[in-house]
Amino acid sequence: MKKAITIKNRMIGEGQAAYVIAEMSANHAGDMNRALEIIHAAKECGADCVKIQTYTPDTITMDCHNEYFTLQSGTWKGENLYQLYGKAYTPWEWQPRLKEEADKIGIDFFSTPFDRTAVDFLEEMQVEFYKIASFEVVDIPLIRAVAATHKPIIMSVGMATVSEIEEAIDAVRSMGNDQLALLKCCSVYPAIADNMNLRTIPDMKNRFGVPVGLSDHSMGGIAAVTAVALGAAIIEKHFCLGRDIENPDSSFSMEPEEFAQMVKEIRLAEKAMGNVSYELSKAEMESRNTRKSIFASADIQAGEKLTASNIRVVRPGYGMEPKYYDEILGKTARNAIPFGTPISWEQFE
Fold first, then answer.
1. What is the rounded distance in angstroms from the CA atom of residue 278 to the CA atom of residue 126?
2. One CATH from 3.30.2310.20, 3.90.1210.10, 3.30.230.80, 3.40.50.2300 for 282-347
3. CA distance 198 to 180
4. What is the C-alpha separation between 340 and 132, in angstroms, rounded?
5. Is the pTM of this model over 0.70?
6. Helix (H) or strand (E) holding 227
7. Where in the chain is CATH 3.90.1210.10?
8. Which candidate, 144, 163, 161, places its Cα nearest to that of 153?
């Protein structure tokens, strides 16, 4: 597999700026105008991409109300799956318009399909890459259908074992597709720091040989920034206009001001990481003058010996380096050395 993928003309992987995805999900709350507003807000906040989901209640589950189809824990405890997805889905008739708007303002756009009909629909829309959700990592037929498009795939692997991740990767490769990136993910909504295990990111890069990022369901931006410092090539965060706009995803989504701050911190973290270097910057070179060196701590007469009473190691750094202090003790001053003068080799015999 490749250690970098290309989305449009953007290289994603080692040494590249993190690719930041704003996940709309259900945050449109059933209003297409709000969905369009989210796209604009994501662009303004510095997102590289906005993502939606392509399913209907009937394509992702069944209209069944027994205990198997009722969530037993978490944010949506007690919800029937069919009814939950009926509240959360993005109507398919909106989606070409949403993509058109994203293209118009210059933000990438893609979607998570949840069955083969969604893949066919998105192909008609000419989407340029795909997402596989964590819960679909075990849906090998779906993965093969997406991989058969030969377009880049970003796949979240929350809840997946190593063997399940390997099976999903094999499914992509079996279709002759090597454009794959993985996202570390804690599939809890919201996720808490104790369960994030971000150190898995560099291990995933080495183990699977593909770009790795983070699908982040935690609150705030610290996990995303930390992930980038650990080598994450992609950051995905749920994005809303306001958590007060009630919908199934609002409680763990990021508001615009928070998202913009996260992007800013990611870009600062990337600058701070820089490259492996022991060279001094111009500013550091100037700061060297504030380091310690050897100075005359009293007036020294010509012919007088240098002693602990008349020389000291102090700041600033215009005199001899402190490592020579013991060596020059007892040396004789060639000329008078006034108090506060930097000591140099030329001043003594």
1. 47
2. 3.90.1210.10
3. 20
4. 70
5. yes
6. helix 222-229
7. 282-347
8. 144
Cα–Cα distance, 63 to 56 (Å, whole number): 11
Q: Domain 10-273 belongs to what topology? A: TIM Barrel (3.20.20)
Residue with tokens 């995933």: 204
Whole-angstrom distance, CA of residue 259 vs CA of residue 243: 13
Measured distance CA(14)–CA(263) in Å, rounded: 18
Closest CA to 26 of 116, 141, 112, 131: 112
List pLDDT tens digits, range 85-102. Answer: 999 999 999 999 999 999
- Cα torsion 61, 64, 65, 69: sign: negative
Residues 250/258, Cβ–Cβ less than 8 Å: no
Give bridge partners of residue 183 from the DSSP assignment: 156, 213
Q: Which of 105, 101, 131 is nearest to 118 (CA)?
A: 131
- Residue length of the chain: 349
Pairing of strands 180-185, 153-156: parallel
- Provide the pLDDT confidence category of residue 74 given band limits of 50, 70 and 90: confident
CB 232 within 8 A of CB 12: no
Other CB atoms within 10 Å distance of the CB of residue 60: 20
